[in-house]
Design brief:
By secondary structure, the protein is α+β, with helices and mostly antiparallel strands. It has eleven helices and 13 strands. Helix 2 runs antiparallel to helix 8, helix 3 packs across helix 4 and helix 6 packs across helix 9. The relative contact order is 0.15.
C-alpha cells in the first residue's frame, strides 16, 4: 500500500557506476536544473577530490517517486554528505515530483534504515535544513542544527547592469573608476575552454595569494564539461598578454555561479581581480540575462560589496541514541551549539 513505511525498503549503492546503471539519465542535465544535484557532479567530485573515502548512496522509492542521499563513510559508524568546498549546497535529491508529505516519508524511511548500523551523521552545507532534520528526528535520531557560515546571492530583479552598479557602495565604484582609467589590463570572457586558456588559469592560480589549488583536476573536468554545454564563463585580466587574474563562472537556467577566482598577488595595486569582476557581472546581467548570481559559500568581506543578500548555511549533526558511543559526541555538539 503506498505510504506504508513497513513496505519501503531502501536500496544502497557503494559505487557511482552502480548508481549510474540504476538511474540511467534521470539525474542528468536534461532533467535536473541544479549543477550540485546532478549525477555527473558526484561522478567528478568523488574520484578527483574524495576518492579515498568510501561511498554509501541510498535510494528510497514509493510509487514513481524517489529520494536519494549521496553520502560518504569516513568510518564504519559515521556518515557525511558527499560534498566539499566546491559544493555550494548539499541536499536530498527527489525524482518524480513527490509532494512535501511524500518527501518526508521517503526521508524518514532512509533515516530509520540508517539507525541499524550508524552512530553519527554530519550533513553540510544545507540551506533548508528543516525537512531533513524533521525526518531524522521522527525516525528516532537525536539532531543538532548549527549555523555554519553563509552564501551570498544577488537577485537582479530586472535591473540592467548600470542600475545594479549605481547601487553598489561608493568605495567599490570609485575603485573601479580609478583603476579602469589607467587602462592597464585587457579583459576577456570565454565560453569555450582550450588547453591554452586552461594553462593561463593554472598560471594565475600558481601566482595568487591563495594556497595551492588542491582540486585542479576536478576544476579542469568541470570547466570542460560546462564548456561543452555552453555554460562556461572563464574570465581573464591580462597585462602585456600575460594572465594576471581569472574567474571561473557557469551560467545556466538564469543563475550564474561563481566557482573560483584568483589574481597574481604582485598585481594587487592595480586591482585586476576587481576590474574582472566588474566585467563578469556586466556580462552575466546584460548579456546572459541572469536572474540570480550566486557567490557560493564563505563569509568573505568582499562579497558583501557585490551582493544584496546573505542566506545562512547550516550543519546538521545526527546521533543514534541507541549507540552509547554517540552520547559523548552528542553532548559536546550540543554544548558547542549553545556556546555558538
Amino acid at each position: 500500500m503506498p505510504g506504508d513505511n513497513r513496505l519501503l525498503v531502501p536500496r544502497e549503492y557503494r559505487t557511482l557506476s552502480e548508481v549510474r546503471s540504476a538511474i540511467g539519465g534521470r539525474m542528468d542535465r536534461a532533467h535536473i536544473d541544479s549543477l550540485f544535484d546532478r549525477l555527473d557532479w558526484f561522478e567528478t567530485l568523488h574520484p578527483l577530490c574524495l576518492g579515498d573515502t568510501p561511498l554509501r548512496v541510498f535510494q528510497q522509492t514509493e510509487d514513481a517517486c524517489e529520494a536519494w542521499l549521496f553520502l560518504l563513510a569516513p568510518s564504519a559508524r559515521r556518515l557525511t554528505a558527499l560534498a566539499n568546498w566546491y559544493s555550494f549546497a548539499w541536499s536530498p535529491i527527489f525524482l518524480g515530483a513527490p509532494d512535501t508529505r511524500q518527501q518526508a516519508r521517503l526521508l524518514e524511511n532512509i533515516a530509520r534504515h540508517l539507525l541499524r548500523d550508524q552512530a553519527q551523521i554530519n550533513l553540510y552545507p544545507l540551506a533548508l535544513p528543516g525537512p531533513l532534520i524533521g525526518a531524522f528526528r521522527r525516525a528516532g535520531w537525536f539532531a543538532v542544527q548549527r549555523p555554519m557560515g553563509g552564501r551570498y546571492l544577488l537577485h537582479v530583479d530586472g535591473r540592467d547592469f548600470a542600475s545594479y552598479w549605481a547601487q553598489r557602495p561608493g568605495r567599490l565604484r570609485n575603485q573601479v573608476r580609478r583603476k579602469a582609467r589607467l587602462g592597464r589590463y585587457d579583459l576577456s570572457i570565454h565560453d569555450k575552454l582550450t588547453d591554452t586558456l586552461w594553462q593561463d588559469y593554472v598560471d594565475v592560480q600558481a601566482h595568487s595569494w591563495k594556497a595551492p589549488e588542491p582540486g585542479l583536476n576536478f576544476l579542469r573536468v568541470l570547466a570542460q564539461r560546462e564548456s561543452d554545454a555552453g555554460t562556461l564563463r572563464l574570465g581573464f585580466a591580462r597585462l602585456d598578454g600575460r594572465a594576471v587574474a581569472t574567474q571561473l563562472w557557469t551560467v545556466e537556467h538564469g543563475t550564474a555561479l561563481i566557482h573560483k577566482l584568483a589574481h597574481d598577488s604582485t598585481q594587487d595595486e592595480g586591482s585586476p581581480g576587481t576590474l574582472l569582476s566588474h566585467a563578469m557581472f556586466a556580462h552575466a546581467i546584460d548579456q546572459d540575462r541572469v536572474a540570480t548570481i550566486d557567490y557560493g559559500t564563505g563569509d568573505n568581506d568582499y562579497k558583501r560589496e557585490w551582493m544584496d543578500e546573505r542566506i545562512p548555511l547550516h550543519q546538521i549533526d545526527l546521533f543514534n541514541p541507541r549507540r552509547a558511543s554517540s552520547w559523548i559526541p552528542a553532548a559536546r555538539t550540543c554544548i558547542s551549539a549553545l556556546v555558538g
